[in-house]
Amino acid sequence: MIVDVLVEINIGKKDKTFSYIVPDNLIDKVDIGKRVLIPFGRQVIEGFILDIKKETSIDLKEIIDVIDEERILNDELLDLGKRISDMTISNLVSVYQAMLPKGYKASKKSNVKDKLVGYLRVIDFDKANSFVNTSKAKKQVEIVNSLLSEDIESKYFNSQTIKSLIDKGIIEKYYKEEYRLKSDLNEKVVHELNPYQKEAYNSIINSNKDVVLLNGVTGSGKTEIYMKLIDDQLKLGKEAIMLVPEISLTPQIIDRFKSHFSEDISVLHSALSDGEKYDEYKKILRKEVKIVVGARSAIFAPFTNIGIIIIDEEHSNTYKQDHNPRYNAIEVAFLRGKMHNAKVILGSATPTIESFARAKKGYYELVKLDHRANNATLPLVNIVDMSKEIRKGNRLFSRDLLLNIEDRLQKNEQIMLLLNKRGYSTYLMCEECGEVLKCPHCDITLTYHKTSDMNRCHYCGYAEKNNHKCKNCKKDSLKLMGYGTEKIEEEISKLFPSSKVLRMDIDTTSKKGSHKEIIDKFNNHEADILVGTQMIAKGLDFPLVTLVGVINADTILNLPDFRSCERTYDLLSQVSGRAGRSSIPGKVIIQTYNPDNYSIKLSKNHDYEKFYNEEILIRKKLYYPPYSFIALIKVGGKDYKYSINEASKIGDYLRKKVDKEIILGPSASSLSKINNIYYFEIIIKYRDKENIIKLLNEVKLLTENNNKIRVEFDINPSNF
Ligand code: ADP
Ligand code: ZN
User: Tag placement on the chain: N or C end, fewer CB within 10 Å?
Assistant: First the structure.
């Protein structure tokens, strides 16, 4: 017997499959979709079995071992991987690796294992009973007595005492496998759907379309509808996948799910340890759970009987992986939905323009939910023109915002302040010569972080101590310019010294569990004000928050991206949605230098459709999605001239092969140098999906042997 094994060698380049002989003792264990240990050159590595053949050979090496008991990639997932590899123009092995949590990847050496816990039990009850009645060894008698009623973890006892009992043949030690995440259940809480929710729910279950877009305002109770839909599927014996955009959201959602469903749920997101992820995945493989809640990669949960797939906050760009393989979990959801005949539910208060357009055209069922649950009202939004404030000397906080903060603090209510920039300052500039401090490896300004007193590059992670010296004129004249969340936290604490302030951004949440800690603290009203980046904008539900302040609404607007208005509108609506979620009405204050921009102006009235109608006109005029698809080819290399030359060749090749599609570039990318690599971009605006995907796969084949350049493909890039 021979197996074909896919290995991860030189990832990002070619896929490689090698054939090996299966020795007789392993024939029963091999199966397609399992990992094997193989000799490879002078190393021993892991790979996935993709094929099994009856034939024999004498020229091949033998596999060393079969790693998995169960198949970790079933037929559906193996096939899904092939389709994603084609769709995203990436290597098959990189797709399989992306589908699996670390402990299941075929790596050189994975050290995630089952967690085994040592227990003690009685093996000879006659002996044990007579020992208890006759022995004078008090400690030993005590242990045997307890073990006669139940097995106990061995770590609670002195090992010498245990050893002598084992030697006497009375007890034995054994190992039990345990999951690292405790599956404690919450007290059961189930809400009846209100009439609006019921109507939406009925429209969803009565729809004959594969995809439903649930466009419900923030706080309208979409999550309650999701749970009811999942209930229905569980009753049919089916499984459910629920995707949420960010780990910051999962603690609250999981709590609600645990209260609603009195059963164990698998949780998959990046804040878990490798061991925890491994266990959560294993629960699914073993069919011990029927629901998974997780971030992007949870779409690959190895369920075999999926009844529904729900994608909450579907507009979130976290569903698109921003490194290879650049897949979009929503597209994967459509593929899996089709395979399982399961509905896909996309939920959002502010869907992507593309999704809403598809819903309006009737490709998706459009279901609206315009009322907040619990009789809560949508918050009042005030837009403050900061160019007027700055003339009054108010640089960071407008008078309106400060007065409202003071008022809420007096009423003992809570406040959230959003600024979409982390760090203390946004850049450092020399007061003498005007030089701006940049990362030595990237074409990017460094950001000052006060807590660590470091200047950091947010792209490559480069960090240096801040010595206030200008690299150009060598004077001690570097000045902090701009401001980030760290600075807001400091200033607000100075202005309101008796209030408690928390901050949530990448810098305060890097430690495991710190997300949940901040959320719990704020939820328990141990703090009055929560300052944060867009991390605090989505999904969180704090009933006591009655004021939301947006420090600077223009951070996204100024990015050179055709989605910058859409992103701005999303962020403002989402963060506004955090205010007034219970009986006390909420207020939102948005500070901006662009009060007349439609994405800011229209966020006042919570009327998504009005925004959509404006935005879609611009998309049409400029031939942007949904009127075209976009693909991006990035060519990177250390040698500037060589790389641009190769990029031009690719551009020429494509131009020869298409007639109607638009091909732009190559041009230097907006972040033209990252980590000492120069990047050039070719942009394709197209309609004929199939043909372009085929062409790009050709380009991949033509360029993947060239080690001097790196060619990356991004279909429907989320940042552009
Ligand atoms: P969304 O997901 O649309 O933002 P949520 O599902 O988080 O909205 O609901 C907002 C709040 O209203 C939550 O605190 C939720 O518990 C509550 N809620 C929603 N629907 C109901 C209901 N039918 N009965 C009682 N409370 C509800
Ligand atoms: Zn850098």
Answer: N
What are the pLDDT digits (tens) for 534-556?
A: 888 877 889 999 999 999 999 88
Q: Which residues 6+ apart lie within 8 Å of 159 measured at CB?
A: none
Helix (H) or strand (E) holding 38: strand 35-40
Specify whether the CB–CB gap between 296 and 329 falls below 8 A: yes
- What is the rounded end-to-end Cα distance, in angstroms, of the chain? 49
Residue 445 is given by DSSP the state B
Encoded tokens for 69: 């008991």
Give the model confidence (pLDDT) of 663-676 as tens digits. 998 987 766 778 88
Provide the token pair at 566.
């859409």
Measured from the CA of 223, which atom of ligand 1 is nearest?
Answer: 6
219 lines ligand 1 (CB under 6 A): yes
Tell me the CATH number of domain 629-715, given options 3.20.20.150, 2.30.30.100, 3.30.70.2690, 1.10.3720.10: 3.30.70.2690
Q: Assign 297 to helix, strand or coil.
A: helix
- In the reported structure, the alpha carbon of residue 340 is separated from the centroid of ligand 2 by a whole-number distance in angstroms of 44
- Among the atoms of ligand 1, which is closest to the Cα of residue 217? 3
**How far, CA to CA in Å, does 707 sit from each of 86, 90, 492, 678?**
22, 16, 52, 15
Q: Is the CB of 191 under 6 A from ligand 1?
A: yes
The alpha carbon torsion through 478, 482, 485, 489 (nearest 10 deg) reads 80
Q: Looking at the CA of residue 577, tell me the nearest atom of ligand 1.
A: 4
CB of residue 197 inside a 6 A radius of ligand 1:
yes
Which CATH superfamily hosts domain 195-372? Answer: P-loop containing nucleotide triphosphate hydrolases (3.40.50.300)
Ligand 2 center to 272 CA (angstroms): 27
H-run or E-run covering 653: helix 640-657
* CB of 347 sitting under 6 A from ligand 1: no
User: What is the residue-averaged pLDDT of the chain?
Assistant: 91
Give residues whose Cβ lies within 5 Å of ion ligand 2: 439, 441-442, 457, 459-460, 462
* 220 pocket-lining for ligand 1 (C-beta < 6 Å): yes
Q: What is the largest CA-CA distance in the chain?
A: 96
Nearest CA to ligand 1 atom 24: 191
Q: Tell how far the Cα of 449 is from the centroid of ligand 2, in angstroms.
A: 15
Residue 216 CA: which ligand 1 atom is closest? 3
Cβ of residue 374 lying under 6 Å from some atom of ligand 1: yes
Cβ burial 80-100 (10 Å sphere, 16+ → b, else e): bbeebbebbbbbbbbbbbbbb
Distance from Cα 374 to the centre of ligand 1, integer Å: 7
Query: CATH for 376-424+483-619?
Result: 3.40.50.300
State how far the Cα of 677 lies from the Cα of 222, in Å rounded to an integer: 44
The single-letter code of the amino acid at 649 is K
Query: How far is residue 446's CA from residue 461's CA, in Å, rounded to a whole number?
Result: 10
Ligand nearest to the CA of 437: 2
| pLDDT bracket for residue 479 (50, 70, 90) | confident
Tens of pLDDT, residues 388-422: 998 898 989 999 999 999 999 999 999 999 999 88
Q: Is 373 in the pocket of ligand 1 (CB under 6 A)?
A: yes
Q: For residue range 156-169, list pLDDT tens digits in order.
A: 888 888 899 999 99
**120 is written with which tokens?**
């003690």
Ligand 1 pocket, 224 CB below 6 A?
yes
| Domain at 2-104, CATH homologous superfamily | PriA, 3(prime) DNA-binding domain (3.40.1440.60)
Phi first, then psi: give them for residue 86, nearest 5 degrees. Answer: -70, -45
Residue with CA nearest ligand 1 atom 19: 221
- What sign does the CA torsion over 591, 594, 596, 597 have? negative
